[in-house]
Amino acid sequence: MLRKILLPIVASFLTAGAQAAPACPAPRQVVERFVPADCEACWAEAGAALPGSAWVLDWIAPSPRGPEAPLAVAALAEAAERLDALGVAPAAASTQTFRWTLPARPALTLRVAGGPAWNGYLGLELTARGKPPAGAVAYVALVEDVPAGSEGTAVARRLVRAVAGPLALDAGGRASTQLRALRIPEGARAERLRGAAWWVDGRQQLGGLVLEGCPARPAP
Fold first, then answer.
1. H, E, C per residue of 126-194
2. What is d(CA 131, CA 106) in angstroms, rounded to the nearest whole number?
């Protein structure tokens, strides 16, 4: 099944060429926010102000209530896995925030490009260059840009909607390219979806983040 999904996506990349993301300022800081699926108030709140140089990844962590939780439709098992990797238990009624200051000259650089939608999937191409630190892995994702004042949120959010990974990186530092097909998630607005990619080191610290069609300025 996966082969049938990937073949037309690969063909589209080969025919049209995966376009490089336009040059834009890399983030100085990445903020990961984890909203419990039980906490509608957490999703609605403005929260603390963020620096203009920060990019945000918003996650909705699943609830023990499963589909009965108010935000269950956008909850991801990968959000709980990410918290577990960080050694943190999910909160029940508060947003958990992690801030990562990125190096000015990272050891590893990523690029992500998106292919066309096909049969309910979107294809993403990840290119990695540089020698990764020991234990480093990468992830590709579909994120949905949710504007402030919509969907019940007071602030703009970059909501993680589907994730593939961890993806192995070439330990020798050779450039490598990987293709993944991610299903368009239920309830997502396709026109607001874009590809994202990031890498974490052996201690799960986030070392870099890139976006497809990098925006002129980060989301607040």
1. EEEEECCCCCCEEEEEEEEEECCCCCCCCCCEEEEEEEEEEEECCCCCCCEEEEEEEECCCCCCHHHEE
2. 10
Of how many residues is the chain composed? 220
Domain contains 220: no
Q: What is the pLDDT of residues 158-188, one digit of tens each?
A: 999 999 999 999 888 888 999 999 999 988 9
Does 219 reside within a domain?
Answer: no
Instruction: Give how many domains the chain has, as a whole number.
Output: 1
Is 163 a domain residue?
Answer: yes
Pairwise CA distance, residues 220 & 212, whole Å:
18
Residue 215 carries which side chain, given as an amino acid letter? P
- For the purposes of burial, counting CB atoms within 10 Å of the CB of 158, is it exposed (0-12), middle (13-18) or buried (19 or more)? buried
| Cα–Cα distance, 136 to 132 (Å, whole number) | 6
- Considering only residues 117 and 218, tell me which one the structure prediction assigns the higher pLDDT: 117
* Contact call for residues 184 and 190 (beta carbons, < 8 A): yes
Closest CA to 192 of 136, 133, 143: 143
Cα 192 versus chain centre, distance: 13
Domain containing residue 187: 2-19+26-211
Task: State if pTM tops 0.85.
Answer: yes
Residue 128 has pLDDT above 80, yes or no: yes
**pLDDT band, very low/low/confident/very high, at 107 (cuts 50, 70, 90):** confident
d(CA 6, CA 173): 26
